[in-house]
What does this fold into?
Amino acid sequence: MKKLVAVLVISACTASVFAQQQPVQQQPQPPRWSPASTEWYTPVPPKVQPGVGAKPPSDAIVLFDGTDMSKWESSKTPERGSRREAAPWKIVNGEMRIVPGSGGIQTKEYFGDCQLHIEFKSPPAENYNGQNRGNSGVFLQNTYEVQVLDGDNNPTYVNGMVGSIYKQSAPLVNAYTKNGEWQVYDIYWKAPKFDSNGLVEPAMITVVMNGIVIQNNFILKGDTPYTGLPTYTPHGRLPLSLQDHGTEVAFRNIWIRNL
Ligand code: MG
It folds into this structure.
C-alpha cells in the first residue's frame, strides 16, 4: 500500500512539473461572424414572370400552345440523305392528338437538365385494359420514359402504371383523376453525366402529378426498356419525345425550361 501511494505521489509531481514546462497554448478563437459575412449580392437571378393558370412562365420554351406543331418532328429515322419528316399527329380543338400507328414525335430542339410541364388526356377506355389503355410516354432525352397511361381503375404492373419511371419505379401514389379529364405532369429532370470512361452521375427525376409528388428525386438505373434491364449509354443533349403506343392520347400546354 505504501508503495502504491509513493508511486502515485511521484506520478503527480512529475505531471505537475511537466505541465509547468509546457508553453502556454493560445486557444484558437472562433471566427468573428457578422450577419453580412454570409450574405452575397451577385449574380442577381434573372426576373421571370410566373405563369398564371395555364400560361407558361416568361422564360419557358413553349413546345405546344394549341395552334401548331412546328417545334416537333417525326421520331422515325429518316431515309439516308433525306430530312426528318414533319410530326404526323393532328391538332383537334387545340389538343395535340396521337395518330395511332403514325409513330412517335420529338422536339427539334435538344435538352439536358430541364423543367417540363405537360398535360395529357386518355381516350375513352372502350374495351382496352392495362398497358393497352391510353398508353403513351414522355421520354426525357429520347431515352427515359415517364409512363403515360389511363390510371382510372386500370390495374397493371405498378412499375408500368401511370406516373411510373417505366420498369424502374412505381409512383408513390396514384394521382390520376378520371378518364377523360386532363392530367398534369410537372417534371424536374437532372440529366445523367458521362465522361470518356462512361457514367459519372446518373439521372435524377422528380415528377409532380396534379400537384402531388409521385416521384421524389428518383435516381435512374439507366434507360427504360420494355424487355431486359436498364443500362446507360453515353449521350449529350437530346430531344424530348412522346410515344405513339397505338391509342389516341391527347396533349396540351407543353412547355420546358432549361435548367
Ligand atoms: Mg408508354
About this structure: Residues 2-21 form the longest helix (20 residues). The radius of gyration is 29 Å. The longest strand covers residues 250-258. Residues 135-137, 145, 147-148, 243, 245 surround magnesium ion (CB under 6 Å).
